[in-house]
Write a structure and sequence with these properties.
By secondary structure, this protein is an alpha/beta fold. The protein folds into three domains: 69 residues, no CATH class; 54 residues, no CATH class; 310 residues, Vaccinia Virus protein VP39 (Rossmann fold, 3-Layer(aba) Sandwich). It contains 20 helices and 13 strands. Strands 9-8-7-10-11-13-12 form a seven-stranded mixed beta sheet, with helices on both faces. The protein has a two-stranded antiparallel ribbon with strand order 1-3. The two termini are 14 Å apart.
Length: 472
């Protein structure tokens, strides 16, 4: 089986070229001023007028901006790919495209199925039969009732509630004297790493890809024996255990999920790393004020939120020794967005990663790091590696369908079934990606000679050539 995603027809519809941003801003300001002057409001009240006016124009522009990308080159017939349970739905969509949000909601509610049992093949052809429109009654309601309030608050109680609800969904069960998460274990595999692996040859198993990734992270921060290592958002403890076992570090992992602590503790006993790791179940804001040589944070910072992002980075800086190294891995978006990116992002915020609003373009992340007093050593974009990883997750999920449905029901199986299929293409075609960023305190006294990058010597040239041949 090919490690790459199926052949598909990418669709480039550059939304930022169509979205009438300047016109929207003009109408927002102009309408606010007009209303304020007409009703003779005091100037401080203009801000309260601007909010609903701004929402109205934003929603209007998003809705009609998406339609400016139509008509499509040719009409699509979603019934070639979709089997509707209700005859009236079949008649409604016969010979027509279907909005992708309507499609996935009906799929979750078991109101439709796909005629091709391999959902990966269906999503490879999605641009032939779906549209990516901004729903007035669905997307707008979600934005106003959930996304905006969560983005503006990000309290400890809110963050803990979201993390626990998401990452403690499964149950830790004993299987042959080993711990297993009966939900996330259904796709993450033996390593239980909920982030991208690293593909070097195209022939690796999921476990080998994740081992490559753990080694790469440790090498980027120059992990060595005796290093005091802090992993913020440690998940199921794979990195702290790997670092302690293979690099001799004294690693501390922080997470809010009790299942993850239980799993990581069990693994540490198996690997013999109990004395070298420490697991703290707490909010990142409550991390003890200690000093660490190496700090890693793999795809947890998105949950910090835009509101708290700068405070979080300043906290990390204070937790580091002056000669320490910080590795930040964060999911990101492209600034030149397309409407599929937007609709996919709203789906993710609703069903998969609630509260993860700090997934931003690279320029924003780098700017925040530099503002917090960091110097960037290296940045790598690993969206393609993520696509390959998610494809393997998808295959595991399908293989374990019976167990997942028995434990957690058909609906949760379908949600993650679609999430994994869609995300394979999104990360493989640039709609979303992931940044591996290595940095350190921007101090004159920092010895920058130790950070000379091996990749500047051309060591990765052969890998690049091999990958191009493999995935051609």
């Amino acid at each position: 089986m090919s490690p790459w995603i199926p052949q598909h027809k990418p669709l480039d519809r550059l939304a930022w070229k169509v979205f009438p941003a300047n016109i929207m801003y003009l109408f927002m300001v102009g309408t606010t001023i007009a209303i304020g002057l007409y009703f003779q409001l005091p100037w401080w009240a203009f801000a309260f007028v601007f909010v609903p006016v701004g929402v109205f124009y934003f929603v209007t522009c998003m809705y009609w901006g998406a339609y400016l990308l139509h008509p499509w080159e040719k009409p699509g017939d979603c019934t070639k790919w979709i089997s509707f349970k209700n005859p009236s739905d079949e008649a409604k969509y016969k010979g027509k495209r279907i909005d992708i949000e309507t499609m996935y909601e009906m799929y979750f509610d078991e109101k439709l199925d796909f005629k091709d049992v391999d959902l990966m093949n269906v999503f490879a052809q999605r641009n032939e039969f779906v549209t990516y429109t901004f729903g007035l009654t669905t997307h707008v309601w979600f934005l106003l009732s959930q996304w905006v309030p969560e983005t503006l608050t990000h309290t400890k109680r809110q963050d803990e509630s979201q993390v626990v609800d998401h990452y403690d969904r499964g149950n830790i069960v004993d299987v042959r004297d080993e711990a297993e998460d009966d939900f996330y274990g259904g796709f993450l595999g033996d390593r239980m790493v909920y982030t991208s692996g690293i593909c070097l040859t195209g022939d690796e198993s999921l476990e080998q890809m994740q081992d490559n990734k753990m080694n790469q992270v440790c090498n980027l921060v120059k992990m060595k024996k005796g290093d005091r290592h802090l992993d913020i958002g440690c998940g199921w403890g794979t990195l702290v255990n790997h670092s302690a076992k293979n690099f001799g570090s004294q690693s501390t992992g922080v997470t809010l999920a009790k299942n993850q602590v239980a799993y990581a503790t069990n693994v540490s006993k198996k690997l013999g790393t109990e004395k070298n790791i420490r697991l703290l179940r707490m909010d990142y804001r409550d991390i003890p004020n200690e000093k660490f040589d190496k700090v890693t944070c793999l795809e947890m910072a998105e949950h910090v939120g835009v509101k708290n992002f700068q405070k979080f980075l300043c906290q990390v800086r204070e937790l580091m020794e002056d000669d320490g190294i910080f590795y930040l891995q964060i999911a990101g978006l492209r600034r030149a967005f397309q409407y599929e990116d937007l609709v996919w992002g709203l789906f993710m915020a609703k069903y998969i990663f609630p509260g993860a609003d700090a997934s931003m373009p690279l320029g924003w992340v780098v700017g925040q790091l530099e503002l917090a007093g960091f110097e960037i050593q290296s940045v790598d974009t690993i969206g393609v590696h993520y696509s390959l990883t998610i494809k393997k997750w998808f295959e595991n999920w399908v293989k374990n369908k019976a167990k997942i449905v028995a434990k957690h029901g058909e609906r949760w199986y379908r949600i993650f079934h679609l999430f994994l299929a869609w995300s394979t293409f999104i990360s493989g075609t640039g709609g979303a990606t992931c940044f591996m960023i290595t940095c350190f305190k921007n101090r004159n006294a920092f010895d920058r000679r130790q950070m000379i990058a091996n990749r500047l010597k051309g060591d990765n040239n052969k890998t690049t050539i091999d990958l191009n041949k493999k995935f051609k």
